[in-house]
From TrEMBL:
<keyword id="KW-0368">Histidine biosynthesis</keyword>
<keyword id="KW-0479">Metal-binding</keyword>
<dbReference type="InterPro" id="IPR001348">
    <property type="entry name" value="ATP_PRibTrfase_HisG"/>
</dbReference>
<keyword id="KW-0067">ATP-binding</keyword>
<dbReference type="GO" id="GO:0005524">
    <property type="term" value="F:ATP binding"/>
</dbReference>
<dbReference type="InterPro" id="IPR015867">
    <property type="entry name" value="N-reg_PII/ATP_PRibTrfase_C"/>
</dbReference>
<dbReference type="InterPro" id="IPR013115">
    <property type="entry name" value="HisG_C"/>
</dbReference>
<dbReference type="GO" id="GO:0000105">
    <property type="term" value="P:L-histidine biosynthetic process"/>
</dbReference>
<protein>
    <recommendedName>
        <fullName>ATP phosphoribosyltransferase</fullName>
        <ecNumber>2.4.2.17</ecNumber>
    </recommendedName>
</protein>
<dbReference type="InterPro" id="IPR020621">
    <property type="entry name" value="ATP-PRT_HisG_long"/>
</dbReference>
<dbReference type="GO" id="GO:0005737">
    <property type="term" value="C:cytoplasm"/>
</dbReference>
<dbReference type="GO" id="GO:0000287">
    <property type="term" value="F:magnesium ion binding"/>
</dbReference>
<dbReference type="InterPro" id="IPR013820">
    <property type="entry name" value="ATP_PRibTrfase_cat"/>
</dbReference>
<dbReference type="InterPro" id="IPR011322">
    <property type="entry name" value="N-reg_PII-like_a/b"/>
</dbReference>
<feature type="domain" description="Histidine biosynthesis HisG C-terminal">
    <location>
        <begin position="207"/>
        <end position="278"/>
    </location>
</feature>
<keyword id="KW-0963">Cytoplasm</keyword>
<feature type="domain" description="ATP phosphoribosyltransferase catalytic">
    <location>
        <begin position="49"/>
        <end position="203"/>
    </location>
</feature>
Amino acid sequence: MLRIAVPNKGALSGPAAAMLHEAGYRQRKESKELVLFDNANDVEFFYLRPRDIAIYVSSGRLDIGITGRDLLLDSGASAEEILQLGFARSTFRYAAKPGTANSVAELAGLTVATSYEGVVGKHLADSGVAASLVHLDGAVETAIQLGVAQVIADVVETGTSLRNAGLEAFGEPIMESEAVVIRRTGADPEDANVRKFLRRLQGVLVARRYVMMDYDIRVEQVEKAVALTPGLESPTVSPLHHEGWVAVRAMVPTAEAQLIMDQLYDLGARAILTTGIHAARL
Ligand SMILES: Nc1ncnc2c1ncn2[C@@H]1O[C@H](COP(=O)(O)OP(=O)(O)OP(=O)(O)O)[C@@H](O)[C@H]1O
Ligand SMILES: O=P(O)(O)OC[C@H]1O[C@H](OP(=O)(O)OP(=O)(O)O)[C@H](O)[C@@H]1O
Ligand SMILES: [Mg+2]
């Protein structure tokens, strides 16, 4: 049986549960359920604080977990990411009142408030800068107004929280983060249960990122058309009853589908259809 850590609240929680549900796993019905056994799939889910997930996984008590890359690095736990999930994307940045500092080098002697002391401490040390850290649990942007620090280092998604506090990000982003699947460093990479779980999630990622495209085209144009829709491996080309025409079927990235349909139409393709992919196993 596979034991999996899932975020129980915050920015990661909803999208993680939605992805697991799409991958065919049972998910909890209400937020007070902290452990859920999915009998049919032989999986047990543990709903844990996002910050704690890397610690449980590194201990070996749980096989894998879903967390943020920034939280994984901040924990310092002995765990590694094995799949990027594409949601809960953020950057991690220094910010301050305009005129305070323009680069990490200018932080020397200043106080930086953050909830991610592991990430920030390492970044300052790697940059050879001696600054003081103040740990806060959240709402870090307010620390400057209240005089607890001159600088903050925090998660930035839309930038709204910084703007509302009259702060500006500066310097290179400390890191880019997104939700990731993690496992204990040194765990068996060939574990069959883990591989099956990852294949299911990869199937969801493919189903979300691609559509199936079908069209009819004259035989003379098929090579040009297929160059526009190469598919993931090779498109299916089938004869049509109407002589001189073939039907083509290929997966195309959802984001490019409309542009490709225009180009196919200009090549003479007709009956161009796209349909959603429900699930995939590549
Ligand atoms: N707008 C956002 N706000 C917060 N976290 C975000 C946002 N966008 C993406 N994330 C990611 O979500 C994760 C943080 O999740 P969460 O907010 O649940 O943690 P936390 O702030 O440490 O927890 P809590 O606020 O409950 O103490 C990080 O990986 C972060 O990069
Ligand atoms: O760039 P934005 O779109 O504004 O998002 C970033 C903000 O969201 C998060 O806060 P959260 O809601 O998790 O509260 P917290 O800081 O108290 O954890 C993060 O800590 C930032 O404050
Ligand atoms: Mg938060």
